[in-house]
Amino acid sequence: MSTTDFLHEAKSRGFIHQSTDEAALTARLKQGPLPGYIGFDATADSLHVGSLVQIMLLRLLQRTGNKPVVLMGGGTTKVGDPSFRDEARPLLDEARIEANKAGIRKVFDSFLQFGDGPTDAVMLDNAEWLDALLYIPFLRDIGKHFSVNRMLTMESVKQRLDREQNLSFLEFNYMLLQAYDFLELSRRHGVALQMGGSDQWGNIVMGADLIRRVTGAEAHVVTTPLITTASGAKMGKTAQGAVWLDAAKVAPYDYWQFWRNAEDADVGRFLALFTDLPMAEVARLAALSGAEVNDAKKVLATEATALLHGRDAAVAAAETARRTFEEGVTAETLPTHLAALPAGVVDLLAAAKLVASKGEARRLIAQNGVRLNDVAVTDPAAQVTPGDLRDGAAKLSLGKKKHLLVRAG
Question: Domain tally for the chain?
Fold first, then answer.
């Protein structure tokens, strides 16, 4: 693919929610590799699946012959982004921020090729310029370009104020710092494109405006849609917690299972966003119906896992799933229980007499001793739903030796 394919590919795969002048961006892409960046604050020692759409967009930028710039928020993490938050983030000390940055860097090594070439990714840190700011000169040179009236209309600010929840002056400065990042990256590295989530639109546009006011250079903006599951759940969050992009937090097998358990209605969209498969193949898999949807889910799981953990780990996870689940499904000795779904896990275990009482089932759940389709059940109110059926059955397990197939009936 060539540099000019970026915008077309991003649109066809569902990455673009809003953008500034697309004709101007296309013209710039024709000139050769375009440096584009996304910022990531170091609030944890890893990223989770909720950040994956941004990572994949940077990957697509590189795959189309452009230059991805990963901006670590070593400086802005000290302030905290107030966007669509009910309260301020806890402030982290320098040592914690440095440790978090190191953990996040490992995630990007799986998705991007770093180096010194024209299309190699680079990782920068806004602490390089933010830590050195002289506050009064900054306000005189940069602050004069920002209207408080306009800042107060930003949804991220307006919602907090409308709910009468405190917004500190420290947080209020965040949008100035984010805009200043774009200006510094433009000056230092020729970055002409900032990308981010749709909730960042106002902040990013302010950065593009600042560049035009201060230097007159071109600046482009692309934002991605908020990614939720078909049932409306936030991407990357499960009953078991966040799905981290770190094998020490979420093993490759569990990561594979997360994608394998995608809702039917999400498969085509997730294949487009979270794999490198050609769109023709994505369309073919998305068109599968009935039991064949499970085949598409396995492809999604294997391709997504291969990007993060490597092809060998993905294939091993798929094979482990096949042995532990599919072979179990066909085993004549595995007990089967028919139930009207949805049905509570506790009720099913008691009805099938895998436990002596519902109280025992709850205790086992509290001890992480119950699994649904090989994923730990942590909520005693959890249910088996039709969406949990794999090849017509869902597998409930107690430890390693007691298994029950639940079928709708």
Answer: 3
